Amino acid sequence: MLMRLFRAALLIGAAVLPLTAQAQQTPAPQSTSAVKPIAYTERTLANGLRVFAIRDTGTATVSVQVWYDVGSKDDPKGRSGFAHMFEHLMFKATRNLVAEQFDRLTEDVGGYNNASTNDDYTNYYETVPANHLQRLLFAEADRMASLVVEPTSFASERDVVKEELRLRVLAAPYGKLFSLYFPEISYTTHPYARPGIGSIAALEAASIDDVRAFHATYYRPDNAVLVVAGNFDPAQLNAWVDQYFAGIARPDRPIPRVTVTEPERTAAITRTVYEDNTPLPAVLISYPIPADRDPDSAALAVLNAILSAGESSRIYESLVYRDQIAQSAGTFLDSKQSTGAFAVYAILAGGKSAGAGEAGLKAEIRRVREQPVTEAELSEAKNQIITGVLNERETANGKASTIASAVIIDGDAGAADRQLAALANVTAADIQRVAKRYLTDNRAATIRYLPATPGGPKGDPIDVAATVQVAALTPPADIKIVAPATAAERILPPPPAAPVSAAIPAPVETRLANGLRVIVVEKHDLPLIAASLVVAPGGGAVDPGNLPGLNSLTAELLTKGTTTRSATQIAREIESLGGSISSDIDWDGATISVGVKSDQAEPAMAILADVAMRPAFAQAEIDRARTQAIDGIGVELKDPAQLAGIVAARAVFGNKPYGHVLTGTPDGLKAISRADIVKSYATSWRPDRAALVLVGDITLAQAQALASSNFASWKAPALAAPAAPAVRASYPAPRVIVVDFPGAGQAGVVVARPGIARRDAGYYPAAVANATLGVGFSSRLNQEIRIKRGLSYGAGSTVSARRQPGPISASTQTKNPSAAEVVGLVVAEMKRLGSEPAAAAELETRKAVLIGGFGRSTETTGGIAGLIGGYVIDDVPLTELKDYAIRIESVDPAAVQAAAAQLLDPAAASIVVVGESKLFIDDLRKAYPALELIPASALKLDSPTLK
Question: Please, which residues bridge with residue 510 across strands?
């Protein structure tokens, strides 16, 4: 539970050197009382279903979640990955619902749904407009009681899961390390050893009878938790729960439970493996830890934050920042119902060895065992966790997940708040004690993950140990085979109730004398503030042609030292407040973002101002950031989907803005000098081109005072800001490019062409057309490629409307042999949308997807700040915030067809396929005889022709 509770806090960033005594004061730890306990009601139906309700009348949505106490550890013998595959099948037909009707009930009304399979549970969750609550309760009850399993859906969804395995495990660099080898090496006896994704062979072995037996065994009311959070009437909720769930029978047979105990590891083990598609060596060390409900979990969570949360954490500071051994490094606190795992890992920097990474990780573990952490580190870690928990609880979905996870993992809904309160009592002695107890050398399981070379060593086998104890699934004797109801018998979902009005952010804008825009949105439900300083125009679009990545590197360096603070001090000071700071590059602008509790706004804003106004651009920091960027692009180029996107941008835009790699290429990054960076900063980072966005628990007067006190002294240069690049009038001719990527686990497919500018009057019809083509599970591309044919885990499209016309692209990943077929499907759907009018009913659902996504982005402080920042970068008037839904709704079928004919015509699109070309090129060449074949090793990313 603690792993899940503190996950948001631990994703804040990475870390740096501790400050000297004179540079830093120990921050006072925030009281955990700042996080109000989640107020919920609880009851249990006669059939055993546990029901929790969390009411929040301040939202216009409601989250419905059903968590089942069954996960990958319960996979039957010989069927690893089965619980996960079954999760997919729960979205198919029930007695009263047709296949994919869950998407009709959620996505098509502006909500969303999803599910996940964990070692200990499988959860299904939806967020919808509050007036659709009854419909979701009806649907969840129907699939609990009467799932239909039939051969066509079973075969198709099994193929989809195979594609997911290829996507996450086989195609992605380090996919095998984290998805397969980490669990396999961590356990010798407990079924946690089996990867939740399974294997192709195990998926092939599953049968329909297995599926029906699994549902009958585990999908029952006394093995489930229902949580409803959001805007609802409590009495009405209880009545609906009784109406739809109370009648589901509770079987009179026991639920099989895993009772295996993982033995104590007493001798260290090390395995070395060599894998294809590994751009940099990696090392991972796993240590067993107790179950999440153990009293030591709070201390382990704080230890985890000290080691890896933010750029002031120990592992980041020593391995990534100071010694530059690793390109990235971090930890996993994988706590569970039973024995969990604590892992430390490093992806090594270019030219560094796995041995150096292993030594560096073990040195940090040894240090935390042998020396007490400082009070400053202890306080900082607690503050980060508290802020992360507040962020998690901004939404109904987050609160519902917190309660459900506590029930399933710890057996008690109150565990989440009690564990949070326990943080206050964690001491430096506790940190050292748990490190000595659990992170000892003899309890370590180490994986050295190295690039394979032709004719090179084979390495050690890593697999599920033969001693892992798993049980076969005994089918219940009374399995009922459910068939879809006839039209006359089918019970339709109830109609929606009256809509609940959603609040639209109302930004208030003022301007300082130096030209800085100050944009404020008050949101007082939680003590949080999100602040963003946005500069535009600028960004990657103004990179010189010979220096791709210049503005990205400049933005990255802003938080890496000022004339008054070192990079170390910036990280330590902001993270000691429980906050985070980051910089980000966009094609047409750049942003520095800060997130913090509202009572820490004043010191946080001082840091933000210092970073924006007084960057030092020290040569040592430039060299460090450049090296990390080069290593990062090296990893991206080993991912077929990412490489396909990079190649497609070059094909569409050539040597013009938006054509190069936004974060730079190895050769381009090496050519950037400090003088180039200083000039880039002076051009873009000036108050008359900037906007300060403040969202959260702050008044307009407070925000204006903070802006004035911190930024009024920022002076605009005397020279006028340079003009934005001229809008281009022509584009390169379309190309069909195959990049041969030997050993690719999947083929990445992109079909892309020039699109539209965000301020163009045709943007809203284009957005609806694109949503119809490829936004959401019910979009045409996903229907054709995933749902009907099982050729991909997902397919979609984007309209990247920017200051200038950006790309419109459709993309997916598929097994190599089906790449040509998928290209044909994408092209056909793009063409069809412009040649045939879409039905008004279909367009209404796509409009709901867009409006619902827009609404969800306004539920959190960070979401609102990001939305407004995007408007600033794209030069969109803030008045469009209140008009967005109206303008989407006003788009009619004729406008969609016209937009599709103009902007989605595949005749003007370039087609890029990255994969093992020998498996698909002959089929693709039949349709495109003039295609170009380029070996991945021969790609020239700095050339507009790629050659």
Answer: 518
